[in-house]
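Message: I would love a firmer grasp of how sequence relates to backbone shape in proteins. Thank you; the sequence and its tokens follow:
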Amino acid sequence: MIEEQINLLKKNGSIFSKQDIYILKRLCTKTNKEKIKDLKKIVENFINKRNFGVKRIDIGISIKKFKTIIQVPKTNLTRIYDIASITKLFTLKLTYDLYSEGIINLNEKITDSLPQINLQNCTIEDILKMNNSIETKGKLSETKTKEEFENRLLTANYIVTNKSKYTDIGFIILGKIIEYKINKLNNLKMEYKEIVNTYVSDQLNLKSTMFVPTKNNNFEIIGNGNHLNLPHDPKTRIYGGFTGAAGLFSSAEDFISLSKLIFTYKFFDKNFVKKIFDYTFLDEKERKRSYSGIYLKTRNNDHSYIPNSFTKYSIAHQGYTGSIIVFDFYTKIHFSILVDAIDKLTDEKTDNFFKYIHKLKKIVGLYCLSIYMSNK
């Protein structure tokens, strides 16, 4: 039975080493409760590795009706993590929603909405696909005030390279276009953080997904270094804690809720999910990416964020602060690994962080697959 399931997964793009198959067969002799208990011990061992540099981890797992959250160390609070560039996934959703409603034309030029930012022939679709390169005269992260940030953004230039390049600047601009479109349509003056709260978090019932979270008795705000309730990303912090590129905080609970919406095509519809899989570009590490920097299955997956054991119908997103979210549309497996990895003194992750997070990603993926196989 297990061999049959492994062979079927292989036909759909999963890659297994002999060790992977041995681990899966051993895990499938255990109950799901035993697997989660084992996985929690593994996570504890990872945290105890001094050169990993992670203080707290939340792992959310959703496999059809099976759902669980592993917290190390355990707390009664909802931990909300700075998810950095995973914010772009929500900006992508807002853009596509406005496109579906006829409010945005993906082929319209950026200058149609923001004439003060002269990006020549750059379109909204170019930003979503990260076509070519967008650069400002000087780094946005080196500005000191929001006004200086705004002025430097006006120097953005669209450089045609005939290559795709992962960028924050394009999604910062995209957030401003969304502000412009929604405010013009409704005669409002909402900032981007209010728009995301209203049109994403509130509508989708994501109770702990927000910009600039306020401290209360239910939340523990972490993953952002020593920046209180502001994000680690310096560009977004200078701007006030929210842009279309970064700044959101979220929780394992919310990503489990999000997985149900994603797998039932209520976050992105089937047509757009197909477009995500159809469009790819390679980043500097030869990893397949798509709209908003979404990761797709790469055959040499050592530096990607989708486990080798997952199918080719998987997507992932990852942020600079270290957190990972993964969704496999074939198996309906979702997991998130949310980490408190930014050191409060150095304001960086350790040099060994990626070595360990990729190992942990692989292990979590195999445990998720074993639960999937047991529930078939």
Q: What stands out?
A: The longest helix spans residues 353-374. The chain has two domains: 2-80+249-374, 85-221. The two ends are 10 Å apart (CA to CA).
